[in-house]
Structure formats: structure tokens, C-alpha cells
Amino acid sequence: MHAPHRTRAATRCGRGREISRALAAFALAALLAPALPGCAGKTPRSAAAPVSPETLLAASGAPLSPAAFAADIARADYILLGEEHPNPCDHEAQAAVVRRLAAAGVRPAVGFEMITADRQPALDAFNAGKLAVADLPRALDWQHTWGYPFALYAPIFEAAREYGLPVFALNAPQGLARKVGRTGLDALPPKERAALPGQLLPPDPAQVEELRELFASHSAMFEKAAAAAKAKGRKPAMPQPDAGRDRFADFVAVQSLWDTQMAQRALYAHAVAGRPVVVIAGGGHVERGWGIARRLSAYDPKARIVTVMPHRGGDAPDAALAGYFYACPAMHNSRLGMTLSHEPPGPGRPDAGLLVTAVAPDSPAARAGLLAGDAVTAAGTHAAASLAALHTAAIEAAKAGEPLRLTVSRAGETLDISIPLGAPASPGK
After folding, report:
1. Domain boundaries defined on the chain
2. Crossing angle, helix 387-399 and helix 15-25, to 10 degrees?
3. What is the architecture of the domain spanning 331-419?
4. What is the tens place of the pLDDT at every residue in 210-228?
């Protein structure tokens, strides 16, 4: 049984990112999702607790001792590690969990949402020692199939290589989820249908209601941006779902497809490897035991499932989200070439907003003039009170075919910076 999830909370860490990916699957955001800044949740959190990503937290917020870790997490059959995809700290924390499992005498298999099942042969070559970690981006065509920098995930692969842990691909073959979202599961040709789970397990009713709320808010945002583009005589930035389809039903079907597919692949990895399985996945697939955990419980009722989610600091973690947490500040590593962290208000900085902690050379952000140390105070028409505002502004800008406009405070001056978004690689997920 997985860790208890007792109450529903307002904070939905990582949900904006997960929802955008699901919308992308049926072409409401197909061109945007990989390049947009992530969402830290509806309710901004204060700075992370003064512990390192290597420190796991109990639901109370207290650091988990090595003995408690071995007694609780190391005995699980499936350990689901949630993340916000662009957050470097989350991936360091995931790698730390893998290393702690190895230190406790557990040698798990590691499954990745980021890799589609049809690319398992490349991982088999890695497992056999024929490919190095540095060879994986090219072997997996990582840049085009996932869209977030491989460097974010490299620490996890390095831990797997160091301890001889087999790695597995969990996601559906590239492009099929988006196709399901646009045309429906029954419209797939037999060969494509055979590559997906035989039956999609439905979501928890409580999750459906949350998805409905989030779908409505994102749809309104897309429609507003589309109207702005139309007013300027521009064509829609992306194709629309087939006429007459229930877009929300298709959206839920895509979410169910991802979660069912990843649960089935984790079950397969457990059977083939004969060892526990660590699942690396977005927080929307892990939190509350709704996504992958719900399907694993149906397939393997006797399995012990543990969920771990990021905690952004401030109050004690919300025990409804997961059984355990790792402390990581709200950060985002963007494909636009900028890394940002959420700087909460404090003495001398009542409106600290978002801090640019790094800018990659010759990146779109660098060419636009953004510098490390800049404080982003607004994104588009939104105050930069959280990473979610950046996410929203980027969706609106890309839908309207415009650059992402940032208001920046630098050395006492206020600057306007425009970063072209372009058309990133298709998410294929």
C-alpha cells in the first residue's frame, strides 16, 4: 500500500507543468510545452528549509534519519520520485535517493517518464555497459524527444551507472499521446494501438474535478491569446483538435494513458529486473497517490508503494501530497537559457520576485540581454510573484506569436527585455 494521502491541499506543486504537457498532447500547446517555464503551484511557497536535497523529510517536515529511511523507503516495491522537470535541485534530490537506496543495500531498477518505450534498446545497451552516460543524449535523441536539458538528469544516470542499476523507459511511444488527444484512442491504426496499454485505467474522481478546474483556467488563457493573435491578423500558432470532440474528455484520456502506460512499464521492470523500481516522473503523476500509484495498486495490490515529492519550504509539507519529501527551492532551468529561482519577500526586498541565477552563453536569454543577478519583477502582464506567472506569460506570448516580455530590475534600473520563443522541438509525449 502506498503512503496515506489524508487531505486535499490548495498547493499543487508542478501541476501547471503537467497540465501544459497534457494539453500539448492534443495540440492546444503542442509547440510550447518543452520551452515554457515551470509552475511551482497555485500558492507560492517561501524559501526552502535549510537542509540539502540529500535530506529526505517526513510528512512532519523533520529530516528522515538513515535508519528510518532503510526501515520505510528501502522496503518498498515501488518508489515514485516526483519532480518539476526544469528544477535542477529536484533531480539532484532524486539521484540522492537512488544513492541512499544503494547505501542501504537496495539496488533498484530506475524507470524514466522522459524516455519512450520504443527507445528501450538504447537503454539496454547502456545497461550492458556498451554506452556511457555521455552517449545517451544522442542515442536517445534526447533533445527532440524530451526537450529539457539532459544535464538535469545526468546525475540520476550517473548514480545508476556507479551502482550497476538497470534503467527502463516508461513512456508511450513518441507522438501517440498527442494523437490520442486529437483523434481519440479508437481512431489509432491497429499497429499504433497495440503499442499502448490494452485498457486505460480511469483517474480518481477527485482528480477529475481538479483536472477540470485546471483545464478550464488553461483553456481560457489559450483562448485569450488566440484572440489576440487573430486581432493582429495572425494564424493560430498550432492546429486545433478535431471538430466536435470533447476536449476535456480527450485531456483526461491523455492523462490516463500516461499514468497507465508508466505503471505497466514499471510493473514490467519490476518483473524483469527482480528488484524494486524507482520511478522518475513529473509531480502530477506522483502527488496524492493519484496517477501512477493508483494504477500500480490496481495491477499489484500487495505491492508497497512510496511517494516522494519536492517541498519548497515554509510551512510543514502537505502530507496529502506524498508520504515523504525532499527540500528544494522553487527553481527553473529554461530552454531559453536562463535559470531562475523564486525569491520570497524579505527584509529590504518586499517584492523580490524571481531571481536570475544563471544565463547560458549565446542562448536566447543571453542574446536578449538578460544577465545573472537580474530580478524579474513582471512577465508579460503578470507580476512575477512566482514561477507560475512566468509559465502563464510564456504560454500567452507563444500562443500570440510574440516574444516573452520580462520587466527586470538591475542595479536600481528597470529594463524591458524581450526573448523570442521560436518553435521548440515537439514534446512527443
Report:
1. 15-204+239-327, 331-419
2. 20
3. Roll (2.30)
4. 888 878 876 666 666 566 6
